[in-house]
Amino acid sequence: MKEQVTSNQWTEYLHELSTFNGELIRYPQRRFDFQCGTVLINQSMDDVGYTVWDAEVILAHMLTDFELRDKCVLEIGAGTALASIVACKMGAKTYVQDLDHVLSRTQSNMTLNNVKFEAVAGEW
Asked: Distance between CA 2 and CA 14 in Å, rounded?
C-alpha cells in the first residue's frame, strides 16, 4: 500500500465533487484524470444510478493508493461504474452489480473507456 493520504492531498480533488460545484451533476459527460489514465463517464439525472456521486469520485481516487493488479474487485450498486473502471485500468478483475435498467449505463461507460468487467443484474 502507498503512503497514507492526508487531508491536504484531497484538496486537489475538491473541484470534482458536486458538493462544491452543483453543476457537475448536470454535465452529460464528465472527465476524471487518474494515475492509471483518463476516465470519461456519461451521466444523467434521469435516475440515481446514472449520476456520478461524490462518494464514487473519492472511492476511485482512493483505489489508486492500492496495488490492484490481479486482484478481484466487486462493486455493488455500481451505477456509472467510475471506481470499477479505475480498478480495471489498474489491472483488477472487476465485477459490478446494479439493477438491470442501470447496467445499460454501466456497460456504455465500460465501452467508452475500453475496459471489460463482469456485470450482474439484481437487487442487493
From this structure: 21
Q: Residue 72 is placed in which grid cell?
A: 478481484
pLDDT in tens, 74-124: 999 999 999 999 999 999 999 999 999 999 999 999 999 999 999 999 887
Q: Are strands 37-42 and 29-34 parallel, antiparallel or unpaired?
A: antiparallel
- CA angle 13/15/17 to nearest 5° reads 80
Q: pLDDT digits over 58-67, tens only?
A: 999 999 999 9
β-partners of residue 2 are none
Residue with cell 478481484: 72
